[in-house]
Amino acid sequence: MSTSFSFRLIATDGEARRGEITMPRGTVRTPAFMPVGTGGTVKAMYMDQVRGVGADIILGNTYHLMLRPGAERVARLGGLHEFARWPHPILTDSGGFQVMSLSKLRKLTEKGVTFRSHIDGVPYEMTPERSIEIQGLLDSDIQMQLDECIALPAKEDEIERAMELSLRWAERCKAAFGIQDGKAMFGIVQGGDIARLRERSAQVLAGLDLKGYAVGGLAVGEPQAVMLEMLDVTCPQLPADRPRYLMGVGTPDDILKSVAHGIDMFDCVMPTRAGRHGLAYTRRGKVNLRNARHAEDHRPLDEESDCPATRDYSRAYLHHLVKSQEALGAMLLTWNNVAYYQRLMADIREAIETQAFNERAAAITEGWARGDISAL
């Protein structure tokens, strides 16, 4: 296994890209979906299940791990990989999203952000340097710059202010990260839904010669068409030989369309959160196991799946577990959902390699549109 961090393109089909990120802890096949392990766990799953369904990399959250159990403690216990029993690559976000989502609990300055913990109200300071320090203590393989993410819709001058601040923070994060063989720091393109701001952000970040680039501040309230328009503006400004990561996205349809616009990496809480609330993602679209139509249905979610949760348990049993609020229901449906997302990514990668992406995307979309099997 390589001791350095590298990315190579294997194939392209239109703007869709098939590649590989190689680093000491493993290879990430792209396009890739990263299951979200906010607090050091992919909720309701064992790590060997996450690996078993095909995940090459997971995501950890700097803000939440800073609060509990604390980055210094994780470091003393051998780092996040050892702590969580996941020896494969980990990407950590920077805490920047909490600048937006916890706006009532923070104060923002040029220096950084002061948060009040949503747990106990204790204040914490998060500067670009401290964010990189925390991610280093966690020992993550891909570390994200600290940025300010603006919820949309927003005024243009406010979007520009946050974008320019994020660019200055990117330079400070790069300096704090330094040179770490086998690891990478990614910059984050901001600019809301304003094309000229997206272009400027991407161009400045590209000039920093980072090992990868993320597109942030999308899927935060804007229509899908706007998100895709911003990708059309942004991706051509980013180096073709570096991975591109669309943060916090998304639905299977969002992923399929974003791959067609040149994106390589994704993450989202959607498959795990949906699993805990009785919703299954399948090749036939979404299936709500709370619905009474499943109460006496002996058939599985999908008899053709290679995931045991999908293939081996009846809809009636899953319905019972969900209605009874049994923990096993959340576990099985989360397993199904993460497996479906990984199967989707594998199908996308194969289609790009065989120059059949558009045809495969159309077939997948048609499968969703046909909907679930008829009720008994």
Per-chain topology:
Elements: E1 6-13, E2 16-23, E3 26-30, E4 32-35, H1 47-52, E5 58-61, H2 62-67, H3 71-76, H4 80-84, E6 90-93, H5 96-101, E7 106-108, E8 113-116, E9 123-126, H6 128-138, E10 142-144, H7 156-177, E11 184-189, H8 195-207, E12 212-215, H9 224-234, E13 244-246, H10 252-259, E14 265-268, H11 270-276, E15 279-282, E16 285-288, H12 308-311, H13 315-323, H14 327-353, H15 357-370
Parallel strand pairs: 4-14, 5-6, 6-10, 10-11, 11-12, 12-13, 13-14
Antiparallel strand pairs: 1-2, 2-3, 7-8, 8-9, 15-16
Helix pairs in contact: 6-7, 7-8, 8-9, 11-14, 13-14, 14-15
What does this structure look like?
The protein is α/β, with parallel strands linked by helices and 376 residues long. The protein has 15 helices and 16 strands. It has helices at residues 47-52, 62-67, 71-76, 80-84, 96-101, 128-138, 156-177, 195-207, 224-234, 252-259, 270-276, 308-311, 315-323, 327-353, 357-370; strands spanning 6-13, 16-23, 26-30, 32-35, 58-61, 90-93, 106-108, 113-116, 123-126, 142-144, 184-189, 212-215, 244-246, 265-268, 279-282, 285-288. Helix 6 crosses helix 7 (156-177). The N and C termini lie far apart (51 Å). The mean pLDDT is 95.
